[in-house]
């Protein structure tokens, strides 16, 4: 299991290659890559702030919960911080399980957490200036799906 | 001396993000911050602002040891 | 959109890199990699047979349905055929959408189809001999989730 | 001459997977296959076996043009 932050662009494909290597009892690897959207020119740069140490620890707790809840074999999360250009990867999540249902659900669960509750602060720099972004209603609703079960 | 960290819009508002301030407990620290910048003092007490001492979230009051790290965290936006 | 079969080992990470490249309006890429399990020595080699032309066309129809149903921007599916050793990738699915819910659900939908209804015939070569594999009850149940909506 | 393709366990059972057989329609083709190998004839008519003519699934009867490709598909196992 690994959770890391990086302020440099990263290559999701290379992470997939490393994550899939040498797995003889993993039937299923689900991954998610979140990319920065240009929003047709409305957003030019996304700026993400984390609290180093605190942010990884908070994500690590959720990963531990997901490992137990979904019986996962492994999880890797890489999250970009700093200034992110359109088309660049913001977040990468990979989950490994014996079967696909657990891998999919855990990846979905982790992304819902990361998008709504993880300790990041997000700013959008666009032609109209700068604005701080808060989770959308849909992000909040998606995250509560897992509370009700 | 506590090390005070501000994140997100709180740092933008204050114009700083990392500062050392003399205080024995959280209440004293909040008072010192509000005395220097009343608007910031109000924002730090606003809804959804959480406080972490040495990277652990605390609710309510907390004693600050020498060299404690106090972070004020506005609502988290997710990644 | 692309659907292809290959009788050679393929590298899912390289497919992710190509799939994510140059996307300015894609917020979400979900991928799934199905790997051959060793089953603790019970399965040594998996052998998959397709009907070239027919199999890609049948998968392509489901991809078209998924593109419309989930409003996808793009889909890539690569499916291995022939003899597959434990740890090797059997199937790769990638979906691109503006937002993550659509990307996840479409990837899940496509995998349920591929695992239960796609035109493949699957043989397991193990120490106890050779057996043809049919979809499990869970595969069938998973696939019908999408019919009821 | 139709080109007949067998897949999965049907090919294992027959001992071949690709053969040319003279027939004007599906019924004639099934009869020719059953005459040469009665067990195979029975398996081809078994539950869950689908037939594709020129890569399109057909139900029931079908006329076979010269060079038609007829595939017998046992229950698909998925990938």
From TrEMBL, chains A, C:
**What's the source species for this entry?**
Caulobacter vibrioides OR37
Reaction equation(s) it catalyzes = 2 [molybdopterin-synthase sulfur-carrier protein]-C-terminal-Gly-aminoethanethioate + cyclic pyranopterin phosphate + H2O = molybdopterin + 2 [molybdopterin-synthase sulfur-carrier protein]-C-terminal Gly-Gly + 2 H(+)
Question: Which InterPro entries would you find in this protein's record?
Answer: MoaE_sf (IPR036563), Mopterin_biosynth_MoaE (IPR003448)
Q: Does the keyword Membrane apply?
A: no
Matching SUPFAM superfamilies:
Molybdopterin synthase subunit MoaE
Please name the GO terms of the biological process aspect recorded for this protein, alphabetically: Mo-molybdopterin cofactor biosynthetic process
Gene3D superfamilies found in the cross-reference section: Molybdopterin biosynthesis MoaE subunit
Listed pathway(s): Cofactor biosynthesis; molybdopterin biosynthesis
Q: What does this protein do?
A: Converts molybdopterin precursor Z into molybdopterin. This requires the incorporation of two sulfur atoms into precursor Z to generate a dithiolene group. The sulfur is provided by MoaD.
The text of the family note is:
Belongs to the MoaE family.
This entry's Enzyme Commission designation comes to 2.8.1.12
One GO molecular-function entry: molybdopterin synthase activity
| Subunit organization | Heterotetramer of 2 MoaD subunits and 2 MoaE subunits. Also stable as homodimer. The enzyme changes between these two forms during catalysis.
Question: Keywords, A to Z?
Answer: Molybdenum cofactor biosynthesis, Transferase
Question: What name has this protein been given in UniProt?
Answer: Molybdopterin synthase catalytic subunit
TrEMBL record, chains B, D:
EC no.? 2.8.1.12
- Give a yes or no for keyword Transferase in this entry: yes
Q: What class of enzyme is it?
A: transferase
Q: Which UniProt keywords apply?
A: Transferase
List GO molecular-function terms, semicolon-separated: molybdopterin synthase activity
User: Which interval of the chain is the signal sequence?
Assistant: none
Superkingdom of origin: Bacteria
The cross-references to InterPro entries, in alphabetical order and at most eight, read: Beta-grasp_dom_sf, Mopterin_synth/thiamin_S_b, ThiS/MoaD-like
State what protein this is by name: Molybdopterin synthase subunit MoaD
Q: Which organism is it from?
A: Caulobacter vibrioides OR37
């Amino acid at each position: 299991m690994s959770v890391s932050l990086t302020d440099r662009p990263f290559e999701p494909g290379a992470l997939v290659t490393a994550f899939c290597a040498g797995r003889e009892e993993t039937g299923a690897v689900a991954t998610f890559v979140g990319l920065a959207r240009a929003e047709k020119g409305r957003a030019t740069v996304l700026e993400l702030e984390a609290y180093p140490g605190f942010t990884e620890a908070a994500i690590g707790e959720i990963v531990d919960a997901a490992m137990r809840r979904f019986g996962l074999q492994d999880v890797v999360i890489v999250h970009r911080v700093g200034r992110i250009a359109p088309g660049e990867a913001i977040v990468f999540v990979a989950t490994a399980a014996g079967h696909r249902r657990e891998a999919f659900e855990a990846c979905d669960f982790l992304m819902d957490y990361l998008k709504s509750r993880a300790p990041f602060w997000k700013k959008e720099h666009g032609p109209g200036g700068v604005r701080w972004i808060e989770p959308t209603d849909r992000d909040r609703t998606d995250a509560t799906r897992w509370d009700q079960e | 001396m506590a090390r005070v960290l501000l994140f997100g819009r709180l740092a933008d508002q204050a114009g700083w993000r990392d500062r050392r301030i003399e205080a024995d407990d959280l209440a004293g620290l909040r008072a010192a911050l509000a005395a220097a910048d009343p608007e910031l003092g109000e924002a730090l007490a606003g809804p959804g602002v959480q406080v972490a001492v040495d990277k652990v979230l605390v609710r309510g009051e907390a004693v600050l040891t020498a060299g404690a790290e106090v972070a004020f965290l506005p609502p988290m936006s997710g990644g």
